[in-house]
Write a structure and sequence with these properties.
By secondary structure, the chain is of the alpha+beta class. Helix content is 35%, strand content 25%. Bound molecules: adenosine-5'-diphosphate and magnesium ion.
Length: 395
């Protein structure tokens, strides 16, 4: 689950991680009032979307307007907010369709001496969280990794003990910090790492992490992603969720207990089991097709779930054929066919449907399919199924 910058910064502040003072605004007048309240002389008006690159991003409706703008008066704050709110911001992370801005964060302007990069992620190889830092802040880290990988520092730390003082010092010296900034880093970095672990983040990124003219480290940006599997431990985070930022079909699937991820292809997939879903996608690709989605209905899917799964798949206008690949292990194949036929009739199919079944009672199930009178293409095995579904697109 992703959250907005302003929400991330509110959580940072609670964890003792320094951030600039800021106020949320949902109308141009609120943005002007926020400027006045912050007291100037400068403030930064920041579009809130679940994507980075806002500073360099531009609005579809206002091609001159950046997503993050330094302002020097309440009027200027109002005018910028007016050009942002309700409009679509396109950045390198949003894709060409962009994202609509519904919320603005007005933040006190800082006197920046240096911009660093900071992130904590889970390092699967090290089996621990790892701090990633770079002296090259404010720019795309992918770019730094490509042109000067030696400028990226990595410091794995123990999730239970946290980042140790010597580790924070080592990072500070490697980044070339001195004086007050080293002391500030020794306080900032362990707190940031504790926040990462205690909030069950999968990623927390601050780009840029600035050093002010006074030598203090301050988080100027906040990109936080939580591990969905740990959200049961953080009931209070539920209110931070912004459904308007999420894919409408993924939200619907989540409610129905289905694991669904939208992809770019045109073959809809309905599969039970995550491993089978992945091998199904692999086989579709092997035979020259492109899956439109990953969809795992789970081991014990019922009629309602299968119906909802079909209607989600078919609501995607890019879907030109559907492949159902089910292994009846926990559930019997004939039970699945009953659900399938009922869902078929409820949803109504306008694209070819290929079905491959295997497992308990498969003979009964295949006969039911053959006798059903519906336009269903039966496949005998996985390869046959993938070939048949790809062939329907070429026909
Ligand atoms: P994004 O990464 O989405 O472009 P940032 O929050 O990093 O958005 O802002 C972009 C740039 O705007 C920063 O790199 C920084 O130079 C400037 N900026 C952002 N917030 C402030 C602030 N409070 N004071 C001064 N400059 C800021
Ligand atoms: Mg940034």
């Amino acid at each position: 689950m992703k959250i907005h910058e302003y929400q991330g910064k509110q959580l940072f502040a609670k964890a003792g991680v320094a951030t600039p003072r800021g106020i949320v605004a949902r109308t141009p007048d609120e943005a002007a009032a926020a400027f006045t309240q912050l007291g100037g002389p400068i403030a930064v008006v920041k579009s809130q979307i679940h994507a980075g690159g806002r500073g360099k991003g531009r609005f579809k409706e206002q091609p001159e307007q950046p997503g993050v703008k330094v302002v020097k008066s309440a009027d200027e704050a109002r005018e910028n907010a007016k050009r942002m709110l309700g409009n679509t911001l396109v950045t390198i992370q949003t894709g060409p369709e962009g994202k609509q801005v519904n919320t603005i964060y007005v933040e006190g302007g800082l006197n920046i001496a240096r911009e660093l990069y900071l992130a904590v992620i889970v390092d699967r190889e090290a089996g621990s969280p790892v701090v990633i830092m770079s002296s090259e802040g404010g720019v795309e880290i992918e770019h730094v990794a490509k042109v000067s990988p030696e400028k990226i520092l990595k410091e794995p730390f123990h999730a239970g003990y946290g980042l140790q003082p010597y580790q924070a010092r080592r990072l500070a010296y490697q980044l070339g910090l001195s004086g007050t900034a080293v002391t500030s880093a020794q306080s900032f970095l362990p707190k940031f790492c504790r926040f990462f672990v205690e909030s069950d983040c999968s990623m927390a990124e601050v780009n840029p992490l600035v050093i002010t003219a006074e030598g203090e480290l301050v988080a100027l940006d906040a990109k936080v992603t939580f591990d969905d599997n740990a959200m049961f431990r953080h009931k209070d985070f539920a209110e931070l969720r912004d459904l308007s930022e999420e894919n409408e079909f993924e939200v619907r699937a989540g409610k129905a207990g289905l694991s669904y991820v939208k992809l770019d292809g045109n073959i809809g997939c309905l599969v039970n089991g995550a491993g089978l879903a992945m091998s199904t996608m692999d086989l579709i690709k092997l035979h020259g097709g492109e899956p439109a989605n990953f969809l795992d209905v789970g081991g014990g899917a019922n009629v309602q779930q299968v119906t909802e799964a079909f209607s989600i798949i078919l609501a995607d206008k890019h879907v030109k054929a559907v492949l159902v690949n089910i292994f009846g292990g926990i559930m019997k194949c004939d039970t699945i066919v009953t659900a399938l036929l009922s869902a078929y009739d409820t949803v109504g199919f306008t694209v070819p449907l290929v079905v491959r079944l295997e497992g308990t009672n498969v003979e009964i199930a295949r006969k039911m399919l053959a006798d059903s009178g519906r336009k269903i293409i039966a496949a005998t095995d996985l390869t046959d199924a993938a070939q048949k579904v790809v062939a329907t697109l070429k026909a």
